Amino acid sequence: MTVSDPRPLTGEPVSLDLLNTRWNVEGVRQDLLTDPAGLGVWLATNGLDGRFTADATTLRHTLAARDALAALVDRPDDPAATAKVDAVLGHGRIRATLTVEGPGEETEFADATWGPGWTAARDYLDLLRAAPDRIRKCAHGACILHFFDTSRNGTRRWCSMAACGNRAKASRHYARTKDH
Predict the structure, then answer these.
(1) How far is it, in rounded angstroms, from Cα 85 to Cα 82?
(2) Which residues are 29's β-sheet partners?
(3) Which residues, including other chains, have CB under 8 Å from residue 74's CB and lie 6 or more apart?
(4) How many helices (H) and strands (E) does the chain have?
(5) Which of 33, 46, 104, 152 would give a disulfide with 97, using CB separation of 3.0 to 4.6 Å?
């Protein structure tokens, strides 16, 4: 039986999607990764369920990677936060390969339970290379979700216009009209 992903925002790059395993519902913090079953949902959502197992050790290592990424997103110039992500990256590597199909790359882990967290940390490096200024936290004050701004002009402010964007617009409208 497949369990659907309960989070309000999915589909972001895997590094930000890992951060988005925590979210708020009416001011109450939710966390998808409270047990291996939640990890299984996250792995499936990101197409990683065929490569990694949702068990207690993998969950512990994935949570360590999430905490490291959260610290770095919040404090990008902090050497300690950078070192935490670098430590996660130390658990895997990419090996160049050559087959009859041509050149390629293969991910290798000394301990596969670090695989999901390493994959997320590696993805974050790709976002930093592509456009670090487009890694964003939702502008709504009560929202803790992150997204990669792929809009043409790079001005996206909300994790979701339907949710946080509308709430902000409704709040501004209410503030303007209540005094009249």
Answers:
(1) 5
(2) 24
(3) 81
(4) 6, 6
(5) 104
Whether the CA torsion 161, 63, 38, 49 is positive or negative: it is positive
Mean pLDDT computed over 87-93: 98
For the chain, give the DSSP string: -PPPP--S---S-HHHHHHTTEEEETTEEEESTTSHHHHHHHHHHTT-TTTS--SHHHHHHHHHHHHHHHHHHH-TT-HHHHHHHHHHHTTEEEEEEEETTEEEEEEEESSGGGHHHHHHHHHHHHHHHH-GGGEEE-SSTT---EEE--STTS----S-IIIIIHHHHHHHHHHHHHT-
User: 125: which 2 tokens?
Assistant: 């490096």
pLDDT at 173: 46
- DSSP-derived 3-state class of residue 50: coil
Closest CA to 89 of 40, 123, 134, 60: 123
pLDDT bracket for residue 2 (50, 70, 90): low
The total of other beta-carbon atoms located within 10 Å of residue 27's CB is 6
3-state DSSP: the chain helix, strand, coil percent, rounded to 5?
50, 15, 35
